[in-house]
Amino acid sequence: RLRVPRPEHQQADWKTQEEWKKKLAAEVLRVQQEYPDATVEKKAEDEHRIGAATLTRRIWIEAGVPPIGKVNWKREWLWLYGASPTPNGRN
């Protein structure tokens, strides 16, 4: 079958990412227990690079296999930052 793959960076390590998520949840719980009268909030930051990116083409895969194409994008870019309020209305 010929399908367009989901891009994945060639150095991506899903095991390390999952371990980091578990450590973050445990750390938030520890801080909440250490300071029971405080409000503990998780904040996230993400950046978006604007520019020309490598095009992902279709690849041949076996039936039933998710199409994942290893990429290492090279691009012209600039940083764009933004912020949005948290659900409680504070920044």
How would you describe this structure to a colleague?
Helix content is 23%, strand content 20%. The chain has one domain (2-80). It is α+β, with helices and mostly antiparallel strands. The protein starts with a strand and ends in an 11-residue tail after the last strand. The chain is elongated. It is built from one helix and six strands, in the order ββαββββ. The mean pLDDT is 76. The strands form three sheets. It has a two-stranded antiparallel ribbon with strand order 1-4. Strands 2-5 form a two-stranded parallel sheet. Strands 3-6 form a two-stranded antiparallel sheet.
Question: In a nutshell, what does this entry contain?
Answer:
The protein is of the alpha+beta class.
